[in-house]
Amino acid sequence: KPALTQLGNQMTRLTGVRAIMKDIAETLRSGAGQDFINLSAGNPLILPEVEQLWRDCTADLLASAEYGDVVCRYGASQGYQPLIDAIVQDFNRRYGLQLTERNVLITPGSQSLYFYATNAFGGYTESGTLKKVVLPLSPDYTGYGGVALAPDSLFAYKPSLDIDTAAHRFKYRPNFSQLTIAEDTGCVLFSRPCNPTGNVLTDDEVQKIAALAAPHHVPVLIDSAYAPPFPALNFTEMTPLFGENILHCMSLSKAGLPGERIGIAIGNEQLIQVLECFQTNMCIHSPRYGQAIAARAINSGALADIAAQVIRPFYQKKVAIVETTLDQAMPSVPWFLHRGEGAIFTWLWLKDLPITDWEFYQELKQVGVIVVPGSSFFPGLHEDWEHTRQCVRISLTGSDQELEIAMQRLAAVVERVYQQS
Ligand code: PLP
Fold first, then answer.
1. Which of 250, 354, 380, 396 to pair with 67, CA 20 to 30 A apart?
2. CATH architecture of structural domain 66-303
3. What is the ipTM of this complex?
4. Aminotransferase class I/classII large domain spans which residues (predicted)?
């Protein structure tokens, strides 16, 4: 084993979702003669129309004179100019903005964007004070857990719960009586729609958060990996919000291009420049092949059309299957499904669950169903809260029949587990 630095150790530690992914990979490999229904993936399914779109854009690129310039040359750190231009035009037209090319940065996936931002704005200042990375509503994307080089900078807030007992549904809301954004805040970060819960913060809630941050000039990163206009994985009305201190962060991963690693940040020129400097140091620039095909799909309007007409309805139907099956099959225990407002997951809260989420995950494996235990989705939450051990994330990346069977088996396990206590 190589000798590692403090940072080396921190980055290689097997924590949170990495530990679970390893366990899942080993479970699937060992097989134990069982066919698992694997609802753990964050990987979107390959939809034929979406694959065809990227195939067509690639064919167009290959046939164009541009090809050599795209793959045989280095380019600007900020991104490939035709993609930047496509984003500027599309967003100005769609949302009535006045963006210029200086308001856009292309990164190799949006994960890298969160790495740049949480370390450029969060962490220790020159004078040694700690600037927090505030996650205003926990649970949130597990990937935020590993990006801050000063891990104690991550600071998540417990939410309020809106519970509809009769309907077995609930929704997380930011707890504005607790949420503090102040001098010691470096940046604010949240996903909308949210991975893992499928929550969509309302326009009002987002505006309130941005207004709390504005007087302190704190950047607010809105992780829009599932938002409109692409992949448009929102099942409730939502408006992307822009503003002086808002960094609107997008990803093409859920629009069928996770392998090409394309993240997009839109915001104030000065913020964009800071992130661009980080990027130059880290990797010079994003690969340009993906950027060139993305420019085509955005310019033609095909990406936004396919998102709204194919990607969104596909996953919306899956949410309905999970909801209907659980409503029919669940025993009479205090279970609550998060309102399915977006993303490619459902989030189940089993109140008073007699075992931990990790043990529940093991029980489900015994009946051939794999989900992700919920406790890995509370990065930056420093207080102990039993709720964190009472949830699971169910990925909607199964066939209709698999989802139905898996939810029936889950309901049977829930019944047994509560009865035994
Ligand atoms: N943000 C959220 C909420 C995600 O769910 C994901 C991936 O699952 C990412 C960011 C990272 O996406 P990428 O780096 O592929 O753009």
1. 250
2. 3-Layer(aba) Sandwich (3.40)
3. 0.99
4. 35-410
